[in-house]
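To assess whether ligand presence alters the predicted conformation, the chain was also submitted together with GMT. Input:
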Amino acid sequence: MKIGITCYPTYGGSGALATELGLDLARRGHEVHFITYAMPFRLRGYTERVYFHEVDTAAGRYPLFEHYPYTLALASKQHEVAARERLDVLHVHYAIPHATTAWLAREMLGPEHRLKVITTLHGTDITLVGQEESFHPITKFSIERSDAVTAVSAFLKEETIRTFGCAQSKIRVIPNFVNLAEYRPAETRSKEGLCPADHKLITHISNFREVKRVKDVVRVFSRIRRAMPATLLMIGDGPERDDAEREARLLEVDTDVRFLGKLDSVASILQQSDFFVLPTQAESFGLAALEAMACGVPVVGSRAGGLPEVVEDGVSGILEPPGSVEAMGRRAVEVLRDPARRATMSAAALARATRYSADLIVPMYESLYREVAS
Ligand code: GMT
């Protein structure tokens, strides 16, 4: 099939998932066209059957536009690519504004072109941004006008029904997936270059937005650090980074906390980690946690949103209510002090991750495409 994909191309779970999906679909013989304002960060180099179409974001080119109408530029590009390449499906990730521009692009096509629009809901498009008064009606409209809608967790599906009143039957849960060829346990473990050999390695990856509670990452770490030598690697960047750095100084653990910024490839770091920390306020799924688990790394995080669908408390990780940094730290220390328990938890994390293998989940999208296109 010919599939268009629109996503946020920068650092973030929805863009990562959309890109991995496109790459996997191309491997399965489909032709994939990414339509977005920058090359998605996981789209490295040339891949057969994968094309990238850049949307112009030239703000200020026309003096009348104080704010460049990016959404119109995106809809025009989606329409242009769909018409020229004869796309069967336009699959958009994150409802705002992608479901709306896709609807517009489909409306612009003549009746002879049967483009189908699929929207995948990822998280804050439903739980946060979409609920803002100004966005709610247009988000609801765009979701309802999509030919098919998927949510990355049962939690997110229920949230969408609750807050937007969408029909139960409209939304299908297709969970996120992980490429087990890339995210897998290390053949040999060596922390060289990451932290001193006798340190436990604790990792966090996110876009450092408020919802991620990155200061809590540092607080959990400081409880671990008090109990044993440990290093925290903070990967990613965003508005809360300064606060997290300040918290590390305040708690006097800053010499053992390293902020690495945005990294394209994280598997080699995850493979050497002892715990992955995700103490977020609301998490629809937690793709970064799944990728850590696929590397055999247990998760310590929040019992919030869809995270309990991925991590089983006490088995493949530790879950406590958001903000419970004391309990998260204490329970992580208990596991880290007991190598046999940590090994059992690591094996359980890996076993859990295999349920979300790309080989199992990507065919669910393929069947959905075939269904809507028939
Ligand atoms: O909704 C967001 O916060 C944005 C999105 C992203 O681009 O990072 O994250 C969401 O989508 C991911 C991929 O499906 C999920 O793994 C994350 O849990 C989800 N984030 C939240 O719900 C906060």
